[in-house]
Every structure is written in structure tokens, then in C-alpha cells.
């Protein structure tokens, strides 16, 4: 058994078991997902697989992203919040159509 396959409960330290793999839909959800994932929330239907672990002792539930999901989120999250102004280079909110610093109109957000 490899070390990283064992998930220990944060609360009681018991070994958690994989209850099921769930998919977590990113696309097509406005509001909070837009805040978290920015433009990613608008890419349409997108399923991110997550492992759903349960502690048999205290009932704590944890979600773990698999390696692919983790990399995907790590790569996208910072860009989901900020972009650079095409003119002055200041970091500005992703949703900005105009730079609050120099007023330059921003082009469409480019996908990775
Ligand atoms: Zn526990
Ligand atoms: Zn600017």
C-alpha cells in the first residue's frame, strides 16, 4: 500500500475510506462558481472528478481532487481572479472590460 493512498481523518486521525468518486460540475453555474472559477465557469459543462472520503469513526467527510483535477484547478485558479491590462500591465479583475488604471478596453479573455 502506498503512503499517499491513505487519507487520515483531520479530526480523529482514523483512516478514511473512499466512499465514492463524484463528479463536480463546473460549467453552467452562475454566481459563486463564477467567483471561484471565473471564466472557467463559462466554459460550459465540465465535470471535475473528485474522491469522496468518509471517516468511519467520526463521520467526517473529505473531498480530494485527483492529480489531474488538482493540476487543472491550480493552473486556472489564479487566472480566474486576475488578468493583466493589455496597455499598462496592471493586474485587474478578470471580468473588467476596461482597465481601472488607464481606461484601456480589454480584449476577450483568452482560453488557456
Ligand atoms: Zn474521524
Ligand atoms: Zn491599464
Shape assignment? elongated
Q: How many DSSP E strands? A: 6
Biggest sheet, in brief? 4 strands, antiparallel
> Please, how many domains?
1
Quickly count the helices: 2
Q: What's the SSE pattern?
A: EEHEEHEE
Strand content: 25-35%
User: Which hetero ligands occur in this complex?
Assistant: zinc ion
Task: Report low-confidence residues grouped into runs of 5 or more.
Answer: none
Task: Report Rg.
Answer: 19 Å
Structural class: alpha+beta
Mean pLDDT: 74
N-to-C CA distance: 36 Å
**Assembly of the depicted chains:** single chain
Helical content stands at: 10-25%
* Adjacency order of strands in the biggest sheet: 1-2-3-4
In words, what does this structure look like?
A four-stranded antiparallel sheet has the order 1-2-3-4. It has a two-stranded antiparallel ribbon with strand order 5-6. It is 19% helix and 29% strand. The protein starts with 6 loop residues before the first strand and ends in a 19-residue tail after the last strand. It has one domain (3-82). With 112 residues, the protein is of the alpha+beta class. A hairpin with a 6-residue loop joins β5 and β6 (91-93). One zinc ion (ZN) binds at residues 9, 11-12, 14, 55, 57-58, 60.
What does the secondary structure layout of this molecule look like, with pairings?
Elements (H helix, E strand, L loop, with lengths): L6 E2 L6 E11 L6 H6 L9 E8 L6 E5 L1 H15 E3 L6 E3 L19
Antiparallel strand pairs: 1-2, 2-3, 3-4, 5-6
The structure holds zinc ion (2 copies).
The site of one zinc ion has 8 residues, from loops.
Amino acid at each position: 500500500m502506498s503512503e499517499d493512498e491513505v487519507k487520515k481523518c483531520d479530526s480523529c486521525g482514523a483512516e478514511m475510506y473512499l466512499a465514492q468518486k463524484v463528479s463536480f460540475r463546473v460549467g453552467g453555474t452562475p454566481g459563486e462558481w463564477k467567483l471561484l472559477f471565473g471564466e472557467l465557469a463559462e466554459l460550459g459543462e465540465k465535470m471535475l472528478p473528485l474522491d469522496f472520503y468518509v471517516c468511519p469513526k467520526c463521520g467526517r467527510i473529505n473531498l480530494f481532487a485527483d492529480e489531474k483535477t488538482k493540476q487543472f484547478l491550480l493552473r486556472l485558479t489564479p487566472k480566474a481572479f486576475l488578468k493583466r491590462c493589455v496597455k499598462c500591465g496592471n493586474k485587474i479583475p478578470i471580468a473588467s472590460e476596461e482597465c481601472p488604471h488607464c481606461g484601456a478596453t480589454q480584449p476577450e479573455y483568452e482560453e488557456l
